Amino acid sequence: MQGMNLLDNSFYWTKQRRELVQWLDDRAPSFAEGYVSAVRLLHTPTFPARVHLICHVVRDIYRQLPAALGAKSLPRPAEVFPSMVQSLAEQWEKFPPNDTVKSESIGSDVVVSAQVHRCVVKLVEKRKELVGQPTVGKQLAIALFRSLDRRDDTFIHPWIIKAFDGEYAFFVGRAHLARSLDRVPTDDGLLEHFEAFERAFHSLVAPYFSGKEELDAILQDTNTTAD
Fold it and tell me: Residue 156 contacts by C-beta under 8 Å, 6 or more apart in sequence?
């Protein structure tokens, strides 16, 4: 209940947002305070660097929440390719290629070592693997869908995945501090994008609350009968 304890009677704590805080408290409590802070900053326009801070929270929800819910962590290109390229460069320097010109063809062929060739093959195969994996938005949608013990994620409405992917692009592009003043993002569209993210999120976890309400009603009836 840590997140719920941070709420007050401010107008922006709508039923939907209170339910999202409750869900985070129950299923991923380490994310609750971050979400609460993002909502508060959203309605505190004078807070310094609020756009970056809000976007950073949302970006972390996208990237870290699926794993917190038990989903298998999928590597991102930025996490994979730098080390693979470094290995390729090391092998290239250790086993430099030999330039040979074939008289029967125009141009030249470069003969590389088996070690370099293996590195190149691994890079190409990894690229194919990453292209085939779900987008960051789809990964989050599937994790939320399955968090309620639902397995057939083909029933996730396409608009939800499209919304998650679209909003991710907005937030991730504004999460880091800018290199110069002219690159500092404004808050244009921030509220609309944040609320779109919340709607998509809530649409997948809403059954959690209808189920709880039904259970609470059953328990209430049981207690009344027992009395």
Answer: 141, 142, 145, 204
Domains in the chain: boundaries: 4-72+136-226, 77-132
pLDDT tops 80 at residue 218: no
Burial of residue 35 (CB within 10 Å: 0-12, 13-18, 19+) is buried
- Helix, strand, coil % over all residues of the chain, rounded to 5: 70, 5, 30
Span 175-198, average pLDDT: 94
pTM: 0.76
Give tens-digit pLDDT for 180-190.
999 999 999 99
3-state secondary structure of 185: coil
Is the Cβ–Cβ distance between 59 and 134 less than 8 Å?
no
Which tokens go with 18? 């209170």
- Percentage, residues of the chain above pLDDT 90: 52
Helix (H, G, I), strand (E, B) or coil at 186: coil
